[in-house]
Amino acid sequence: MAAIYNLFIINKSGGLIFYKDYGSAGRMDTNDSLRLASLWHSMHAISQQLSPTIGCFGIELLQADNFDLHCFQSLTGTKFFVVCEPGAQHMEGLLKVIYELYTDFVLKNPFYEMEMPIRCELFDIHLSQAIQKDRVVLLGR
């Protein structure tokens, strides 16, 4: 069983620009993934406004009985979040690695248009390698 169930990348306006399923129990169709990304973007924005502390950047971790949701927001407002097994370790580090891959292989791609869905083969390859490396480290497989 994989430590990571899903990966989502949401642009600053709340649009889903990348989704990858890594073996979650209930597969989501395109509409479900779009709905979930939109919901998370809204919850993240509301949490920033409702926070009693000054300088809050939104929800970074949401824990439930059957999953954890980890979020990393870049300075440009792009959000990266993973849905993973409860208690999975080092997800913040993995999200930063994914962000580095995004900057290296998506943003530096001369054919990529900002805020549009990500269709970059090099990003997919390196992302798969990073996820596989993370699985080996976390699960010993």
Automatic annotation (TrEMBL):
Task: Enumerate the SMART domains for this protein.
Answer: Sybindin
Q: Which CDD domains match?
A: TRAPPC4_synbindin
| InterPro entries in UniProt | Longin-like_dom_sf, TRAPPC
**Which UniProt keyword terms apply here?**
Endoplasmic reticulum, ER-Golgi transport, Golgi apparatus, Transport
Keyword Endoplasmic reticulum applies: yes
Gene Ontology CC entries for this record:
endoplasmic reticulum; Golgi apparatus; TRAPP complex
Give me any GO biological process, just one. endoplasmic reticulum to Golgi vesicle-mediated transport
Q: Where in the cell is it found?
A: Endoplasmic reticulum; Golgi apparatus, cis-Golgi network; Golgi apparatus
Q: Which domain of life is it from?
A: Eukaryota
Q: What is annotated about its quaternary structure and interactions?
A: Part of the multisubunit transport protein particle (TRAPP) complex.
| Similarity-based family | Belongs to the TRAPP small subunits family. TRAPPC4 subfamily.
PANTHER family (UniProt xref): TRAFFICKING PROTEIN PARTICLE COMPLEX SUBUNIT, TRAFFICKING PROTEIN PARTICLE COMPLEX SUBUNIT 4
What is the name of this protein? Trafficking protein particle complex subunit
Q: Which organism is it from?
A: Dendrobium nobile
